[in-house]
Structure formats: C-alpha cells, structure tokens
Design a protein that fits this description.
Blueprint lengths: L2 H15 L18 E12 L2 E4 L6 E4 L2 H10 L4 E5 L4 E5 L2 E4 L2 E6 L4 E6 L13 E8 L2 E8 L1 E2 L6
Antiparallel strand pairs: 1-2, 1-3, 1-10, 1-11, 3-4, 4-5, 6-7, 7-8, 8-9, 9-10
C-alpha cells in the first residue's frame, strides 16, 4: 500500500470513532448484558488505490439480540449498536432499519451499514445465524468487515 494511503487510513480510522455526529463515549448498563458480541473474522480498508486487510485483533461490535432488534423495527423503537476496541465502545444510534432474512441497519446518513443474517442456519447458502457484514465509509475510504455475532461473554467484575 502506498504511504499516502497508509496515512489516510490512520487519519480516517481515528475520525471514525471520535468527533463525528452520532458517536461518543458510552457506558455499560444492565440492558446491555444481553447483547450479542460480533467479532470481526476479516476486515479490509479500501481507497481509490485498492483494498488491504486491516487488523481485527481488538475490534468487535455489540448489538442487541436479534429478536430484540426485530421487535424494535416492528415497533419503530430506537436501536443502538456499539463499535468497540480494547479501549472503549462507541455508541451509534441506528437511523434506519429493515428486517427480512437479514437485519439491515444504517446510520450516519448511510455512512454506516450493518447487515446480520437473522434466520436459522442455511448450509445451502453458507450462512449461519448471526453472520454479519459491516460497511463504514468516510470521505473516499470504505472499511468492510465480516464476522459472526454470538452471545457476549459475561462482564468481568
């Protein structure tokens, strides 16, 4: 990857979690105890020069259980997800959501998109319940992540 692209990736990675509307420091609540943890299995950063794999070591999403999100979509209730690393979790309020075979959640005017497979495992499609794709854009850069959401481990005391 070219030096200019690496510098742009570092700049955008920092801006994705701070200083943008819809993002801010979060704190844990009892309601968050039932969240699903969605670790990345693969993640790439793309620019006009191409795509490169990025570190997945400490990144993950925390989302409400699938049934909770489906009910919130039906009720028109607010859904919140959190983008996390080993230092903090940044809350994000979903602006638009749909539920079919996939839960499709978007925020920040479409700059954030999360798609979660919400049906029983489908071997013929190669999909398991909780498989997800996340797309985050900023300026002319796009981050694409893939993984699977599972029950979050209990919080440490």
């Amino acid at each position: 990857m070219r030096t200019r692209t690496r510098a742009a990736l570092a700049l955008v990675a920092g801006s994705l979690v701070a200083g943008l509307p819809g993002f801010g420091a979060g704190s844990a609540t009892a309601q968050e105890a039932a969240e699903l943890r969605c670790p990345y299995a693969q993640r790439s950063a793309c620019t006009t020069e191409g795509c490169d794999s990025t570190s997945i070591e400490h990144g993950y999403l925390l989302v409400p259980p699938i049934a909770t999100m489906q009910q919130a979509i039906a009720d028109g209730s607010t859904i919140r997800v959190r983008r996390c690393d080993d230092r903090e979790c940044i809350p994000l309020t979903i602006e638009r959501a749909t539920s079919e075979g996939f839960l499709t959640l978007s925020a920040r005017g479409g700059a954030f998109l999360l798609k979660i497979f919400a049906r029983p495992d489908s071997p013929e499609l190669g999909l398991r319940t909780g498989d997800f794709t996340e797309v985050v854009t900023s300026m002319m850069m796009t981050y694409v992540g893939y993984g699977r959401c599972t029950a979050a481990p209990p919080a440490r005391s």
